[in-house]
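Intended use. Records like the one below are meant for learning the mapping from a protein sequence to its folded structure. Do not use them to infer anything beyond what is encoded.
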Amino acid sequence: MAFVTMKPGTLLSPVPAVLVSSGMPGESGPVCNVMTAAWTGTVCSDPPMVSVSVRPSRYTYELIEKSGEFVISLTDRKLLRAADYCGVRSGREEDKFARCGLTKVPAQGMAFAPAIAESPVYLACRVAERLAPGSHVIYIGRVVSMGVREDLLSPDGAIRLDRADLIAYSHGVYTALGETLGFFGFSVASPKVFARRMKQLRG
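Structure written out for the chain above:
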């Protein structure tokens, strides 16, 4: 079937729908905010670095600019409504943590930005680079600590994200991750290895 050429856009889908928390000093303690972002990505593995794109009009932009840190929290099905709400409301007008029933917890290495207790995984980041290519500012953050919910760790210490019930975002629609289809390198694995690994992943 032929392609239909369209005007350029950012149709890179699906992407993770994450919660980005930030903070800065305030008169009576840290001021914190949380926003939803779908424009995040892996930058490199050594050192571990990720990125998040934020419009300068967002309250989160102001907080990251002042603190130089942020926390990315992955979202699961239980966090779906909160994730959507935090993407359409401003932290300048209300406390979205309180409104959505989200619990702030300290993230190792962060002075102001909290992690979210209800999230299955968080990545605490310090800004390493700042890029301003256009409508959004891209913060490249070095991951200084990571938290994984205890029930997502197998006895051998492996992280089982397949048990996290994570959600994704695809062109304005939230979706649940579905059936496990393979693993890295499955195309060159022997049938015996493939069967064993798939049994583990689906178990």
